[in-house]
Amino acid sequence: MSKIKWQYADHWRTDSPKGPVNQFASRVEMDRFIKQISAVGLRGVGMFAWNLGAVSAMFGGLPAYKAFLAERGIEKIVDLFWCQPQASPGMTIHNRAAAGPVRSGHNWPIARHGGRGDHGA
After folding, report:
1. Which domain of life is it from (predicted)?
2. How far apart are CA 91 and CA 93, in angstroms?
3. Rg of the chain (C-alpha set)
4. In DSSP terms, which residues pair with 81 in a beta bridge?
């Protein structure tokens, strides 16, 4: 894969008769989301850690989600964003006292949701 120059973080809302809907509402919405970002030339997607559970529920884990992305032209999940409000106690990245546990345990949410789908987890 060549260098990824652009990626889209998974912020997304579309209007519906019932109000705003995001891509985690259904596979149909996810399909629409991924096809649209791919159609404008984006080749990567950024994820928020709190969406791992939704991806696992929808696809059975990260490997299946990555295959879904690839079928629609997305080459890679570029990053996994983690921020303090969603962090578990003792896993707050912005807290120096938690640096050791965070570094040694940063792969646990990925492993919990089926691994990365490559040789890294």
Report:
1. Bacteria
2. 6
3. 15
4. 48
Q: Is 48 helix (H, G, I), strand (E, B) or coil?
A: strand
Measured between alpha carbons, how far is 6 from 3 in angstroms, rounded to an integer? Answer: 9
Token representation of residue 30 = 């996810």
Segment 35-63 mean pLDDT:
88
Q: Which pLDDT tens digit goes with each residue over 71-116?
A: 999 998 888 777 655 555 555 556 666 655 555 555 555 666 566 5
Mean pLDDT of 7-34: 85
SS3 65: helix
Closest alpha carbon to 49 in 90, 104, 86, 102? 86
Query: In percent, how much of the chain has pLDDT > 90?
Result: 21
Q: What values do phi and psi take at 116, rounded to 5?
A: -80, -15
Q: What mean pLDDT value characterizes the chain?
A: 76
Residue 69's CB is within 10 A of a number of other CB atoms, namely 22
DSSP state at residue 67: H
